[in-house]
Input
Amino acid sequence: MDLTMGLSILDLARVQFAMTTVFHFFFVPLSIGLGLVVAIMETMYVIKKDEQYKRMTKFWGKIFLLSFAVGVVTGIVQEFQFGMNWSRYSRYVGDIFGPALAVEALVAFFMESTFLGLWMFGWERFNKGLHLAFIWITTIGSAFSSLWILAANSFMQNPIGFKVDHKFDRAVLVDFPALLQNHQLWLEFPHVIFGTFLAGSFVVMGVSAWSLLRKPTHELDFFKKSIKIAAIVALVGTAGIGLTGDRHSLYLQDDQPMKFAATEGLDKNVGGKNESAPWSVVAYTNPKTHEVEWSLDVPYVLSILAHHSLVGGSQGWTEINKELHEKYDLKFGKDMNYYLPNNTIYYAFRIMAMSAGAFGLLSVVALWAVRKKSKLDITKYKWALWIFGLAMYLPFVAITAGWLVTELGRAPWVVYGVLTIADAVSPNVSFASLLTSNILYFLTFAVLGGLMVMLSRRVMIAGPDSEERVAEELVDPFSAKAFEAGKEA
Amino acid sequence: MTDFQILWFVLIAVLFAGFFFLEGFDFGIGMALKGVAKTEHEEDALIASIGPHWDGNEVWLITAGGAMFAAMPFWYASLFSGFYLILFAILLGLIYRGVSFEFREQMKTAKYRNLWTTISAVTSFFVPFLFGVLFADVVQGMPLDKAGDMSATFFDYFNVFSIIGGVAVALLSYVHGLNYLRLKVETGVLHDRVQTQIKVLYPVLLVGEVAFAAGLFLFTDFFAKKPLITVAFLAVIVLLTVIAWLTGLKRRNVWSFITLGLAIIAVVLLLFTGLFPRVIVGDVPSMSLLLKNATSSAYTLKWMTIISLTALPIVLAYQIWSFYIFRQRIVVKK
Output
């Protein structure tokens, strides 16, 4: 393998995949979450006939559209890069992974794009009810998109419903419905969807906070109403991620024990049938010896988290490593490294979990502060507005941390127990090509991310009453008259 | 080869044809931002004419790619890894082009608006150009090994025939875009300018088509393997272009738009017909990647067929409905 700067083709391909996917996945949850918040606002407008809600819909709709645009263009990269960078993966599991992606485009993505166009340009053309339907169809369409993408990811995490076709050396599908019946999907999908609630709602609360910091008296009612809707969505989202995350942990211990051990920093087995296990708040693992050098432990908590009981043990990675070698050495050889980047996964998991606590706290505070009976002048609490302004970035940190746990924790496999990452990469894409694409992707994403933040800020500064610029006149080019017109000329 | 394999080859051809027909005029409009429009209001009008549609049109490409991955993973893997840098450039083009419309709208000064207009125009040229290069290479022959991995050098990608292919696709898209614009902008100086350009471009387009035909004869095995079909397709393409030209002169703009659109579809179908039963032509004939070895299992193809044939008519219905809703012409602000 070509080695330059200590990096291999595989490293570069992995870095690129992480970069393109993480960047894309800033905008996916933001679009779904903002779509939901905007859809709720427009629903309020249709029900209450209060113009304020229409202004809210249009204002937050602008940020939603920016986010959607960046999400769409970075999404194309996702579909292409499997073939481009992971050709051996594409050949090996294309029979299973491909359909999930194709169905996503066919049944969900078409729907989102078309109905978003109708919504965006259709304010003057449709009655209120129909126009409202478009934003809901768009939002449900994008949630449906994520269902299929996560079905594909769930197969990689927990492959079921396939067999190996030796003639073409690949895995083939034997049970299509299994793609959607995978229990992994029903752990991941709700967790991700509730995460999108948080991304959308915290951006609404954050931008509202920044706006109130800029001009405290300006549009107070507008932003308070926005915060209220967002806070309710955020509260539902927090409860959702908590419950689904907890369920996920329970399954993880059996499905991918190595990942579970890494999230909790367990080198040795802890607890037992009648014995409690402590949970560490912070810990450090020596990456060379794979031993936990120090940790700060709280008794009982791991048993509670992992077994919903005061007693119950968990396996450490030393033992799991032995088991994995016993199970897989025949297939993958003795040289496989089953240890994970434990510190990264451990802290990513803690960042995610602690963010969830912050989300809950902040959404309760926000809801309490803007409740109808509240006499609180929220504009006076500048420090609190600052916190909310900064907190809008936290969901993206938490979501990225969550994906790092999920994806890094699956190593050394790209499809758990079936195909290794090293066997998945394109053999014919050169180091130079990969380096070029890595650098240009990075620059592009920096430009897009920077512009996205700048433009959102500009939308915010312009405020709810800014005008758009495009005019049209009503003439039908495909009418019978138009066909006739040519003959006269 | 099974019927399902052939069906999916046809379906992927149809998806690419749909993509080039629909996104073709979007690309054309993009190029026209620099080729036709002279004021910012004209640029606004151009972008407004595709505003509600370009995103939905681009989904045809995403669906074509997805269908390829699902139904022909071996084709998808060999093609996408083999054309790594070209597809990477296409992706960058689609990224910058996709955000350019939204970002341009948001820019405060004429200078930055013009920057994004330029980005839009340049990427709108390069994406169809590179697709033309890619498809020309695929039918011309590329160095493939036994695993289907391509190891090509610069001149395998960029050569006389592939450049002709690239220019032809870009030019077709441009004229197609102008035809669309002529429908959407009814009268005035912009309309007249479009009309003047179209008149000049048809002869150029016909020369391009002849060059492309000559390229097919010299650099591919289309004429050797399927002479009748190839000649028939080429005749149809030229005929449709001439009809588009003449109907345009008589101001039957709808017919002109439709016939040139059909010519684009015919080009895609010709390439796929000549390619069959291969999916990538090898530089050594025995190394060509064959359709029968490129597809998913019969089981997956069956499921994909059921889902696609259910979903596609619905998709078509609401896309056509959307075009119908936004059928009004655009008026240039004064």
Summary: Residues 469-489 of chain A have pLDDT under 50 and may be disordered. Chain A touches chain B through 85 residues (CB under 8 Å). The longest strand of chain A covers residues 279-286.
